[in-house]
Amino acid sequence: MDIKHISTTIRDAISQDVIQLKIQGIEPKISVILVGDDEASLMYANTKKKVAEWLGIAVEIEHFPASISQAELERHIAMRSHDVKVHGILIESPFPEGLDYAKALARVDPLKDIDGLHEENLGKLQSGSLESAILPATPLACLHLMEQYSGKVAGKHIVLVGSGRTVGKPLAMLLIYHGATVTACNAETTNIPEMCRSADIIVSAVGKPGLITQEMVTETSFVIDVGTALNEAGKMVGDVDYEAVSQIAKFVTPVPGGVGMITTGIVFQNVLRAIQLQKQRDHFELSVNDFVVLASGATMPGGGGIAAVVAILGASMTSMVYSLTKNLSDSSDFSKITLLIESLKEIYRLDIGAFEGYLTGLKLPKSTPEEQKIRSTALQAALIHACEVPLRFGEVVSELLRISCACAQVGNPQVLSDVRVAITLLESSLSSAFAAIDLNLASIRDTAQSEKITEQKNKILCEVADLVRLGKETLAQR
C-alpha cells in the first residue's frame, strides 16, 4: 500500500474543492494557536502551513509566550471562534506547565474544531450523531488506511493498544459505529500479545518505542503505528519495532511517513466540512451578539432573509395575542403559526443559497463563447431562483396575515395593539422581499418565465392588500 499516493489523492481532491469554494466567494482560512517553545509543535504547525498554502487555504500561526495567562489565551481563542473569516482552529499541544489545554479547547467553536477533539464533537461521535460532527483527524486517518487496506471494517477484529483521549477512545467509537469488533487495551491489560495475534488489524497509540514486537503479529496482521517518541539517538520512532515486525506482518505503517501524512490531509478535509456545517448553522439558535457578529460574513442573508426575520417577529406578536386570549391557545390557527415560523426559517436559509448561487455564476470564466454561454445560463437560473424565494415568502406572509385577521376578530382586547404591530411587520417585510423581485425581473431574459413570476407576485400583492385592509378595519371597529 502506497501511503504517499493515498495522501496525494486526498490533497488533490481537497485542492479542487477549495477552488470551488473560492468561486463561491469563500476564502478558506484556519488559525493555528501555538503556546510556548515546544520544537515539535512548532515543526507540526509549520508543516501544516506549507500543506495548507499548497491547497490554497490561508493559515495564520499565532505564537504566544509560555507566560500568557489562561484567561488571556482563552479570550483570544474565543475571538478567533467568533471571527467569520476564520473557518478552522487548531490548538497545538503540549501546553507549557500551568496552562490547561482542555479549558482552552473548550473555547473553540465546535464547528471550527478541525482536530475534532472538542467535547461536543466527541459527544456526537459517542452518540452516533456523525452527520453534524467534525470527527477526530487521526482516528479518521486510521479508518481511511484500514478501508484502503481491506475494504469495509465491519466484522473485522481490531485491537487498539492505548486508549487515550485523542486517538484510542475516539477511534474505538468510530470503529464500533462502522461495525468492527474492537478490543481496547490499556496499561492494565495483561494479555496484550495474545490479543494482538488474534487481530485482523492492530493500532498502537502509546508513544513507547518497541512496544509492538515481532512476537505479537502474524503473517496476516495489518499494523497501524500512531505512536511517536524520540529514541536514544534522538530520532523520531513509533511504537512498533518496525524492522522486526515488518518481516512478519503483512503491512506496517512507518513512523515518520505513515499515519501522520494521512492525518494532515484529513485535518484539511475537516476544514471543508467545517465550512459546510457553518453554512448550515441555524442562526436562530444563536445569541443576538453572535447574530450581529455574523452580519459581516458570507452567510448573512440579503433583503429576503432579513424580511423573513421581520416576518418571524410579526408572527410572534400574533402568537402572543392568541396565547393571552382565553380558549384560543388551542386553536388550529395558533398551532399553525409555529409551522409557518419554521417555513420562514427555511426561507431565510434559501435566501442565503440564492445569493451564493448568483455569486457563483458571476465568478465563472467567460473567456470563450462556450464559457460565456455556461455563465449566462447559470446567472439566469440564479436570478429565477432569487425571484422564487420571495414568492414563497409571500405565500407564507399571506397565510400569517389571514391568521392575524382572525386573531383581530376574537383576540383579547387588552393586547390587540400587538396584532396591529404584527400586521405592520408582515406588510413591510413583504414589501422589502418583493423589491428584490422587481430588480431581478429586469435581468431575466425568458419572457414567459418573467411573466409567470410577475403574475404570481401581483396575485400575492392583491391578497395581502385585502388582508391588511381587513385586519386594520377589524381592529378599528374593536
What can you see in these coordinates?
This protein is an alpha/beta fold and 478 residues long. The protein has 2 domains: 3-274, Rossmann fold, CATH 3.40.50; 301-477, Four Helix Bundle (Hemerythrin (Met), subunit A) (Up-down Bundle). It has 16 helices and 10 strands. A hairpin with a 5-residue loop joins strand 8 and strand 9 (236-237). Helix 6 crosses helix 7, helix 6 crosses helix 10 and helix 15 (417-441) runs antiparallel to helix 16 (447-477).
Report the sheet with the most strands, covering strand number, pairing sense and barrel closure. Answer: 5 strands, parallel
The CATH topology annotation of the largest domain reads as Rossmann fold
| CATH-defined superfamily of the largest domain | NAD(P)-binding Rossmann-like Domain
**Sheet/helix structural class:** alpha/beta
* Helix/strand order, N-terminal first: HEHEHEHHHEHEHEEEEHEHHHHHHH
Quote the beta fraction: 5-15%
Task: Indicate the CATH class of the largest domain.
Answer: Alpha Beta
In the residues, how many domains can be counted? 2
Oligomeric grouping of the chains: single chain
Q: Any guess at the CATH architecture of the largest domain? A: 3-Layer(aba) Sandwich
The low-confidence parts are none
Q: What would you report as the Rg, rounded to the nearest angstrom? A: 29 Å
